[in-house]
Specification:
heterodimer, A: alpha/beta, Rossmann fold, 35% helix, globular, B: alpha+beta, 2 domains, 11-stranded mixed β-sheet, 52% helix, elongated
């Protein structure tokens, strides 16, 4: 178990702080417990776990979709565990980015619109973030030509990179990635990891990365195993 | 963004969206169309007779008198004597009268004995007078003017001879064969019972019955058509007569005077009032029509909901993505609502256009062939209420798929079940 050791000098508020976080559907039934974890800006955490090990519950919890049953969850100094569902949605829009396993994009929107989708919910006009979106996409290797295309026209690798751009658009404190490389081949996977972490570091975003692929561990500062988190009953 | 998403999401599923739109448009066209026809039918019905202030007949009920004098349905219980008619016609307040003598028929169509006043004063719909499609008024005793439908159904031309039958059945055993009538004129279609009437002069009615007594030919006594013309053909009785007054203000006074006429028991009715009362009796038909229309609309709306519900499965990913970027479950709820409203609005506009074009296209044809005068403008302030009601109904029904989406957004969160 590693607790956060600052790797950057500046930030005073941790990007994410978990204090004895617990979640259960019914008291006494299967539950998820997280140990105390504090991650400073730019510190990345690898959570190792296969699907079916409560991964989705963990992601929903960290992203503020579901509220914890007990404990504390602080994101960028906001007490997520005390916020209403609507406030958590707002906080997620500005402070938490999510990258799924695959099919991250709304197929009928253009690539650029998919990225700018976030601006609406973060309470910012799309126009103010447009330039940042374009720059991010370019940095991730998506040409202006590709940006105007429908999302469904892109390859899986390209779509995953668009997802990174969307997740980082509002320079969030936290980026949650759920096996984003599982649909990629080895070459693409390494390239993806490179751009993900490079771009995240540029805006001092902390990455929490969930995957069963042990080889990816080397990219991260810390690691956790799902097996340690789920107590009591076996996974569903 | 919400509108853009709803619009593009619908466009993305354009196959099903178009089918939904089509079925919804069809049901709205039906709704608006039937509603329009219902209103037009009522106004056309209540305008079967216009410009006539009173209808006078032997003492009976108001509907009975209306039915046999205007709609040629049923028979009069008693007649009005010619002397009485002449006396009342001289009333200073009365401007014109149209005598009506019924009781004979031609191949199922009623024969009406009347005079030139009929062609001059009879009005229907919006004060529209009778006009001739061919020929002219009858002048001689053995001349007839046909209603548009009689001429069309039986294929009669001007100059053809027809024989009238005693009684009103389609098949009659006692015909006035000895005194045939020449078709002198054919009226233009009116969409009223006039179209189904054979008009002849009162003298003609008298002539064909001159050698009859008690509703049967007198045995051994035959008077030829030519001989008849020499005789006095002043009618002895009428079935009813229509009255036009100098001033409408006098309507109730004159009605009362006729109802209290000492010479013989009479009833005078206001045709507008009687027609409205009759339509009230037919309102069940109107209500059933309305009910069917509403059912059709409900079917259209339910169809739309079914399609939307079915699409919720494939849209699970959409919902998860929206949630990931910070959309609340309510946002997803309103997204579905907005899609329904968009579909409904477009369907309403389409159906209005279809209806307008259709009415515009068939108006002349309906008027020419059926004498149905339907206004091209199917919209009124009432249509606005309908539109609001339809939108409200759609939005209420949309709560079902919208709520399903809301639940999905709330419970499934970021999970995408593939």
């Amino acid at each position: 178990m590693h607790n956060g050791v600052p790797v950057t000098t500046k930030p005073k508020i941790p990007a994410i702080e978990l204090k004895d976080l617990q979640f259960w559907y019914r008291a006494g039934a299967w539950q998820l417990s997280l140990p105390a974890v504090t991650l400073e800006h730019g510190q990345h955490l690898f959570i190792q776990g296969a699907s079916g090990s409560g991964k989705t519950t963990l992601l929903n919890l960290l992203a503020g979709i579901t509220a914890p049953s007990a404990g504390e969850l602080w994101v960028q100094g906001h007490a997520m565990h005390q916020l209403s569902a609507a406030k958590r949605d707002k906080l997620r829009a500005s402070q938490i980015g999510v990258v799924f396993q695959q099919l991250n994009l709304i197929p009928y929107l253009s690539v650029l619109d998919n990225v700018l989708l976030r601006a609406t919910f973060a309470g910012q006009a799309a126009i103010t973030l447009q330039q940042r979106a374009i720059d991010l996409l370019r940095a991730l290797g998506l040409t202006d030509d590709l940006q105007r295309q429908r999302a469904s026209a892109l390859s899986v690798g390209q779509q995953q990179r668009v997802a990174i751009a969307r997740a980082l658009l509002t320079q969030p404190a936290l980026l949650i990635a759920d096996e984003p490389t599982s649909a990629l081949d080895a070459n693409n996977r390494d390239a993806f990891m490179q751009v993900l972490l490079t771009e995240a570091d540029k805006c001092a975003t902390t990455v929490i990365f969930v995957s069963h692929d042990q080889q990816l561990k080397r990219y991260f500062h810390f690691e956790l195993s799902m097996a340690d988190l789920a107590k009591g009953v076996v996974a569903c | 963004m919400l509108i853009k998403l709803a619009r593009l999401s619908l466009w993305n599923r354009k196959g099903t969206a178009l089918m939904t739109l089509l079925s919804l448009t069809l049901s709205l066209v039906l709704l608006l169309g039937i509603e329009h026809i219902r209103k037009e039918a009522r106004s056309s019905f209540t305008n079967t007779v216009s410009g006539t202030d009173l209808i006078v007949g032997a003492r009976s009920g108001q509907l009975n008198l209306l039915l046999y004098s205007v709609f040629r349905l049923g028979n009069a219980t008693a007649n009005v004597s010619w002397a009485t008619y002449e006396r009342i016609a001289k009333h200073p307040q009365i401007s014109w009268t149209i005598p009506l003598a019924l009781g004979d028929s031609h191949r199922g169509y009623r024969v009406l004995g009347t005079n030139q006043g009929y062609f001059e004063h009879y009005r229907y719909a919006n004060q529209q007078g009778l006009s001739f499609a061919a020929g002219e008024q009858f002048a001689g005793v053995y001349e007839a003017v046909l209603g548009a439908e009689v001429a069309k159904q039986l294929g009669y031309q001007l100059g053809q001879e027809i024989t009238l039958a005693h009684g009103v059945g389609a098949v009659s055993f006692s015909e006035h064969k000895d005194k045939p009538f020449v078709i002198k004129g054919i009226l233009a279609a009116t969409g009223t019972p006039v179209d189904q009437t054979v008009h002849i002069s009162l003298e003609g009615i008298e002539a064909i019955h001159i050698d009859w007594q008690q509703g049967a030919p007198m045995p051994g006594r035959k008077i030829s058509a030519e001989q008849t013309l020499e005789m006095d053909l002043t009618p002895k009785a009428l079935t009813a007569f229509m009255v036009g007054l100098n001033s409408r203000m006098a309507t109730f006074v004159v009605q009362r005077q006729i109802n209290e006429f000492r010479g013989e028991p009479l009833t005078a009715i206001l045709p507008g009032v009687a027609l409205a009362e009759l339509w009230q009796m037919l309102s069940i038909v109107e209500n059933i029509l309305l009910l069917i229309t509403l059912m059709v609309l409900a079917a259209g709306l339910v169809g739309m909901m079914t399609t939307l519900l079915a699409s919720m499965r494939e849209r699970q990913r959409e919902v998860a993505i929206l949630r990931a970027v910070g959309a609340s479950p309510w946002y997803v709820f309103w997204l579905i609502q907005l899609e329904v409203l968009l579909l409904t609005l477009v369907a309403m506009l389409l159906s209005a256009a279809v209806l307008l074009l259709t009415l515009f296209g068939v108006q002349d044809w309906l008027a020419a062939h059926y004498g149905l005068f339907i206004s091209v403008m199917p919209f009124s302030t009432e249509t606005l209420y309908w539109a609001a009601g339809i939108l409200a109904a759609a939005s209420v029904l949309a709560c079902i798929p919208a709520f399903v989406a809301y639940r999905k957004a709330l419970t499934d969160g970021l999970s995408v079940k593939l």
